[in-house]
Request: fold
Amino acid sequence: MDEMKKVYIQEANELLDNLESSLLSLEENPNDKSNIEQVFRVMHTLKGNSSMFGLVKIAEFVHDLETIYDKIRQGEMQLSEAILNTTLLSLDHLNRIIIDSELEEEINKENHSKLIDEIHSFIEVGSSEKINSNVSDNSEALDSELTSEGTKTYHVYFEPSSTIFLDGSNPLLLIAELTALGKSVIVPHFKAIHHLDKFNPIHCYTYWDVYLESACEKTDILDVFVFVEGNSTIEISEFAYTDLLSNQSFLDVTTGSIYKDLKTDITAIKLLAESIGVSSKEKAESKVEVSNSKLQSKKSETKEKALTSIRVASDKLDELMNLVSELVTTQASLSLFKEKHETPELEVISENIEKLSRRLRDIAFGMTLVPVNNMFSRFQRLVRDVSMSLGKEVDFITEGGETELDKSIIETLTDPIMHIIRNSLDHGLELPSVRESQDKTRKGTVKLKAFYSGVFVFIQIIDDGKGIDVDVIREKAISKGLMKEEDELTDKEIFDFIFNAGFSTATVVTDISGRGVGMDVVKRNITDLKGVVSVDSQVNVGTTLTIKLPLSLSIIDGLLVDIQGVNYIIPLSVVNKCYEVDNSDMVKNFNRLLVLDEMQVPFINMREEFGYAKLDFKGKSQLIVVSDGENEVGITVDYIVDEYQAVVKPIGKYYRNQDFVSGATILGDGSIALVLDTHKIVELYTEHIKMELK
Amino acid sequence: MKVEKTNYEKKGETKSFLSFRLAEEHFTIPVMKIMEILEVPKITKIPQSPNFLVGVINLRGAVLPVIDTRIKFGMSPIEYTINTCILVLSIELDGETIIVGSLVDSVSEVFELSDEMIKPTPTIATRYRADYIQGMIQEDDHFMMVLNIDKVFSTLDLESISESKDAKVTEE
Reply:
């Protein structure tokens, strides 16, 4: 039962997320019927799920909410700002009570009754409105009756999936709902059952032809089947604009096939309809064609969807990734073994396995990637609520939501981005009146943008607010002793001070007090993900915050190098070029600069840095030029061994002070290579140099 | 697990202990804490790390940090002999279970012990920090110290010793 409850909560969470985004888009386009339908449908599913699990309180609550949207859907009520607000509040409430379904917590209980009262008041107001409108719009109603020009005859073919009972649906109820739409003739059929032993009592073997004479629209008929259309076959066609069902010969033919497994020959019946002389007009004919094909395509779409996505527990995915990592490591030992033993057969096998494991790696890897849209949609609500409470008007734009990132990265990234957006809204954007006085649009813009560049993903948060003044930050940094008056720093370096602990942007730029969490936490979170964050800003134009992240943390392509007998991996993503240099050039190098391709490149002697033996004066070293996007730095290694697919594993808590090693990987021979974080090495080295200069 | 422990204490049932040697001293820890005992494989040293952190090894695909237990106890660094081995320990650290390898000179035996047989440590007689030692047991003519390994390998202690030789070399 616990397992079931877990499934329920998981599904409910998804439904609520879905509901939230539909509600927010409904807020933007209040007249969009499809959104209202969507909201209604999700509520209905949630209600069904809840009552199935016996969570009566939730079911009743959702039922009341649903009533409002049903009325709106029917045009009996007008959607209002107040209704939307209450619905969103109810959503928050639901999020809490799906865990506390018996309302054991006092606060939930309170909210529950408060919200129910609000909802009921809406329903009551809505009903009285309806009566009013009925009176005043009487003439209109008459008009619409006139234009509908009587009735139409439909043929509805309904073949439920054989497992329909398992979903808890009763096809007879659907048929009953259908017949409630008008006058009808129902022709049930049975699918052939050849042997009794093949008969499964919980499967549905019945299907129906229903001839319906009604004034309703086709969409109304589709609505009846809205919850089963995914796996049942439903075909609806219009026969004629008149009432066929009163014609006896028509009835004779249609009911002739009753209880037989006969595919009703619709065309024959259509011909009959024509011969009776009450045939549909040509226009109707073509309509049938079009709508039929439309339906068909809709059906195949839903079928395709059902096939292309399945729900998988994330720990299963993690396990898959682990196994693939093991496979990649084992494959490396196989290749090593192959090289030692020159057997042609072994070579073929080893190469095949290499190819397969590489493909498997890519596929498994792709599965752990999630589009950032999942995260982006969560911010919609945040922006709405925060901007409302601040009295600011904001256009929140998201771009590149389809960009994919490792799911674990996304999870850790949500909080920092939420913080940045909140900052933009609070400190970045000005109040509407201030904006207008500065010839800006009344509405501010906050843009959240994600895109790929090489093996990195960039996420930018761009606002068009008042920006950050470099000089103010400069002064603040000087007063805090972070830099000296005479230091010449680039704007970028100065902006980086924002990420220092206790360096609140709020107190720098304005006098509004900042929120508790600082940008230093944001930076730490992003650094933990091996990401880099930077700020750029222009006064009165806006601020852009850029986060640069690796695509994945678990498996990287790297360069396997050797420094005094110890193996290291340098991620290929940062490697620009490799050179061979004489050690003598470096040992006596006072400036620690080498001229390579007519460019001056600073270099780091890794042997010195790691406390290994000194470089042999006569020998040669390999210099690997790495870049962090702006600066190029050379790193010396003894020699380059190979290119290597490294499965990065954590080295544990004991080594948290050695953060220039971002992890370790296991080589084909079972020994360990350390994965270097060159960004950190450069940082450490610069600190050393500064210390030396002092 | 906790329930079991209290049962032991109440009924005075016996637990298994493993004894090992560091230089000339004998120590013992509950077998429950030991996952396995390994021969010493190739160890990869991580640069600029304190010298009691010997490095990392490959334990069937996982990366295992290895600690020179002798340095940790203020003795001279371990000398590798045929008897040197690594105890793979599962310890509690900040509420998390982590796996760590501990280098020891040799392992001696596994024996049964009831809680009453563990005597409190005389506060003056030992040169080790009192919270590292859970108690003493007497076996024939010599004493053996029962270690509180969760404490011995806790990170905070590691950090306080981390001002070590290696780190200084690089700074010079």
Summary: Residues 1-10, 158-172 of chain B have pLDDT under 50 and may be disordered.
